[in-house]
């Protein structure tokens, strides 16, 4: 048996990167809504708007998997649950960006 006391898991250096990647898709989506409602995107051409949507979709998918993988590496139940929730949230945002780009919304 191991007689060493259980040490708490200390946050690693990847925590700030993980949090930024986890919430980047939501920030992009909120920025899109703010810019669209203020009329700042009216001068953007259709092809440029679709390119921005595809870029948002690809960035959301990348952020989705990278931030969740960083959470899964911690191995605690709460980190794994957070990683699963982030996969669903960011996956939905990526789906939204992809649908908007495909349907020219």
Task: Explain the overall architecture.
The protein is mainly α and 105 residues long. It has a domain at 16-29 and 46-103. It has helices at 15-37, 46-72, 77-103. Helix 2 packs antiparallel against helix 3. The longest helix has 27 residues, at 46-72. The model has no long low-confidence stretch (mean pLDDT 75).
Concise description?
The chain has 105 residues and is mostly helical. Helix content is 73%, strand content 0%.
Structural class: mainly alpha
Q: What is the mean pLDDT? A: 75
Helicity range: over 70%
Q: What summary fits the major beta sheet?
A: none
Topology:
Elements: H1 15-37, H2 46-72, H3 77-103
Helix pairs in contact: 1-2, 1-3, 2-3
Labels describing this entry:
single chain; mainly alpha; 0% strand; elongated
């Amino acid at each position: 048996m191991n007689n060493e006391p259980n040490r708490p898991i200390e946050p690693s250096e990847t925590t700030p990167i993980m949090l930024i990647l986890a919430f980047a898709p939501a920030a992009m989506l909120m920025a899109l809504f703010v810019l669209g409602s203020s009329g700042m995107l009216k001068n953007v051409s259709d092809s440029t708007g679709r390119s921005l949507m595809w870029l948002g979709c690809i960035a959301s998918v990348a952020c989705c998997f990278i931030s969740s993988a960083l959470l899964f590496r911690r191995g605690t139940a709460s980190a794994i649950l957070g990683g699963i929730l982030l996969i669903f949230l960011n996956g939905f945002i990526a789906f939204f960006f992809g649908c908007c780009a495909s349907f020219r919304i």
